[in-house]
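Run: sequence + hydroxy diiron-OXO moiety -> complex structure.
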Amino acid sequence: MNKKLEDAFNDQLNAELHSAYLYLSIAAYFDSINLKGFANWMKAQVQEELLHSMKLYNYIINRGGKVKLSPIGEVGREWESPLNAFEATYEHECYITGRINDLMNLAREENDNASVIFLEWFINEQVEEEATTDEKLQELKMIGDSTPGLFMIDREMGQRVFTPPTTQSE
Ligand code: OFO
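>> structure
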């Protein structure tokens, strides 16, 4: 992998770690307002982001590149409401999708077929990431100010379990 791609993959590794950091902060916000189910959901999301980070880490190493860890940017600590926190989450996922698309375009420009194939997994993953966060956002919009509605969603979100992938390549 050339230097340009190595740098871009390292930037994406940083962005995924930043996503984990952001979602951990959102989990802490939910814990602070006693929405334990929402907090559980966000903690599972943190695990997802760490998985994405490790995929990139392993790929950089496997391609003979150097992993360069940079400081992780600051994240917010307070959100106005669960709805506001999910607006931020969905927006963040759309931002990550844009980054993955740019990385794919760069891999194509550099004629790096292995990177193109590797990034296909991330392209598909982002479809799922946007869909799941938007689903929660829409549910929160639907319930409006209903406290019973909020507790119902909280109960459902408490069921989420992070399942680590079973194959080594993942
Ligand atoms: Fe890594 O997909 Fe979310 O950010």
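>> summary
The helical segments are 3-32, 36-62, 82-109, 113-143, 147-157. The two ends are 20 Å apart (CA to CA).
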